[in-house]
Amino acid sequence: MTDVLYSREQVEAWQQNLEKIAQLPRTSFTKKQAVEALIKDIEAALKNRSYQEVAKTLKKDGLDITAGSLKQYVTRYRRSHSKPSRRQKNQEKAEVVKSKTLVKSDRSSEKTQKRRTTKTPAKSPQKSASAKK
Predict the structure, then answer these.
(1) Whole-angstrom Cα distance, residue 54 to residue 42?
(2) In terms of CB atoms within 10 Å, which end of the chain has fewer, N or C?
(3) Residue 77 in contact with residue 39, Cβ under 8 Å?
(4) Which residues contact 108 (CB under 8 A, 6 or more apart)?
């Protein structure tokens, strides 16, 4: 099987086309994407209305969504765009402590390795006190 080769001009043309479409606004949405695009307005409505009422209004206007799906999309959006939870913060702290511990253990193993490789002068045997007499 041979690899197909592409010219620099082709790759640059593809890159330019991708840059163009990246700048264009989205023209079609899934339900989830529609909810995410409308999230500020949905959350404002939810301050005074129930999920059932908001979903009913959206359905009347053409977005076929149930209250349960709306709640699920909003909840997932909030979780993914919220501040880290206490549990996430604790996990991050544990990871930092663990990485610091690993760094310390690496340093101590380096010191141990240096001690092992560094030759110390041999001590000459000392004569015992009884042997001197």
Answers:
(1) 7
(2) N
(3) yes
(4) none
